[in-house]
Amino acid sequence: MREKRLFYNTVSSLVFQLTTIICGFILPRLILNAFGSEVNGLINSITQFLGVISFLELGVGAVVQSALYKPLSEKRQDDVSKIIASANKFFTRLGEILLIYVIALVIIYPQFAGKDFGFAYTATLIIAISISSFAQYFFGIVNRLLLTADQRGYIQYNAQTIAVVGNTIACFVLIYLKCSIQIVKLTTSLIYLLQPFGVYLYVRNHYKIDRNIKYTKEPIAQKWNGIAQHVAAVILDGTDTIVLTLFATLSDVSIYSVYYLVVKGVKQLFLSMTNGITALIGELWAKQELDELNKTFSWTEWTIHTGTTFVFGLTAILIVPFVEVYTNGIHDANYIQPLFAALIVAANAGHCLRLPYNIVILAAGHYKQTQNNYITVAVINIVVSVATVKVLGLIGVAIGTLVAMAYQTIWMAIYDSKHLIKWPIRSFLKQVFVDILTVVIGFFATRMIIMQGMSYLAWIVLAVKTTIMWGIIAVVINLIFYRSKVLGMLKKIQGRVKKKV
After folding, report:
1. Within 10 A of 467 (CB to CB), how many other CB atoms are there?
2. Is 304 within 8 Å of 270 (Cβ atoms)?
3. Cα distance between residue 41 and residue 36, in whole Å
4. pLDDT digits (tens, 9 = 90+) for 129-139
5. Residue 483 to residues 4, 149, 250, 479: CA-CA distances in angstroms?
6. Is-contact 13 153, C-beta < 8 A?
7. pLDDT at residue 497 tops 90
């Protein structure tokens, strides 16, 4: 059953992320073409400022999910109900705070950003974009946490996939009909409003949750100890856009958003593949099946490092040619930024490389013990970004994120080795060495391959050539350093193929 749910979760999450990436490329291009870089920058800026409210989530979501692993595995329904009831109270209150925040944003934001568009234009856009955020806190987030903790995340991923496709089709039609950007974004919010209702109905019909259950003792242990982790995550995801909004231009925000669209899509693919693994490791830790946990972690570390190196290495080479094609015909900003591209790809690769170690920390519930590290990472990112943005612009904010991610990845690997699964630090160092070796050889082996023309077809040809070369290099290097892992992976794939045949 574990393997079956892991497979469902991984596949459905992967389909959702691929759908999100494809649709995520379609919509910004339509907006850029129809409304221009300034409006695209304004939308991304508003979205990021609305995301700041998630500061107030204070990491409770991650703690709720960790708290659910044990009672779900032991089928203690009353304890599950108490955790859900406590979480519902918290997120309902957060939704009320969000309402106040949006009102303040409507009044204040147009005074320092989007001045060229007028107060009414910017204010109505904020309101249109914010509606889906209310649905998340009032109806959606607790049910999603329950499904993920119970290794049934595939339910919500399928619902989200349907919402993304429906939204893309609707927005395409509205932009074709020359509707205002406010109508387009309002439609997006209303479509995403339906998704949490569908998840709620599934949970109501498949779980016996007493949402009004009474409790005297707080059922969510370490409820407030996830604050540092959460704040750091919000800062790492949102600092760049906010810093650019305050210290640069909306055109810079638009340029950043186009590059981030690519790297975020690649990053989300890796996150999607770890969603099922997180719940599995959480269950193994809760039951203290340590031998199985170490075996699972070994495969997780190697798979994520190898996959990250391969995919982000390709991304670093292919991102500028892709952006060149993607923004062809748009001349109101300079979207060709090779140094920034390399840095932002490296920073997000770092985010993925830290995943195996972060998963173990979250699964073990070590929030309080690791909070100082998360605070340090947040400070590093803010200080470096603000200190360099005036001189270096886009490159400055990318450097801030890269430095913060490199520090955190190393720190987490050391912490896991000392305090949790006792994973040898030399294994981490060996893996990093293989990662760097693959990138260096891959870069020099493919730097002479250039794009022949300015079209998606020409880019696809470039991508195929580069991927084949990188694939050969990655397989050869891993056969030298991780032969048993490569052969083991091939056996697993072969076994699945035989089952289907």
Report:
1. 16
2. yes
3. 9
4. 887 777 666 66
5. 27, 34, 49, 4
6. yes
7. no
Residue type, 336: I
Token reading at 206: 């498949």
Those residues with Cβ within 8 angstroms of residue 260's Cβ, 6 or more apart along the chain or in another chain? 240, 344
What tokens does 474 get?
A: 């990655």
pLDDT in tens, 386-442: 888 878 878 888 888 889 888 988 888 888 888 777 777 888 889 899 999 999 998
Rounded CA-CA distance 401/380 in Å is 8
Q: Identity (one letter) of the amino acid at 48?
A: Q
Burial 130-143 (b: 16+ CB within 10 A, else e): bbbbbbbbbbbbbb
Residue corresponding to tokens 């329904």 = 77
Cα distances from 475 to residues 11, 269, 431, 468, 487, in angstroms, run 23, 21, 14, 11, 11
Compute the mean pLDDT over every residue in the chain, rounded to the nearest whole number. Answer: 80
Q: Which of 155, 195, 200, 202 is nearest to 8 (CA)?
A: 155
Residue 380 vs residues 19, 49, 205, 235, 470: alpha-carbon distances, Å: 34, 20, 46, 10, 33
Which are the contacts of 64, defined by CB distance < 8 A and separation ≥ 6?
83, 87, 142, 145, 149, 220
Q: C-alpha distances in angstroms, 349 versus 264, 400, 443, 446, 497?
A: 10, 14, 15, 19, 31
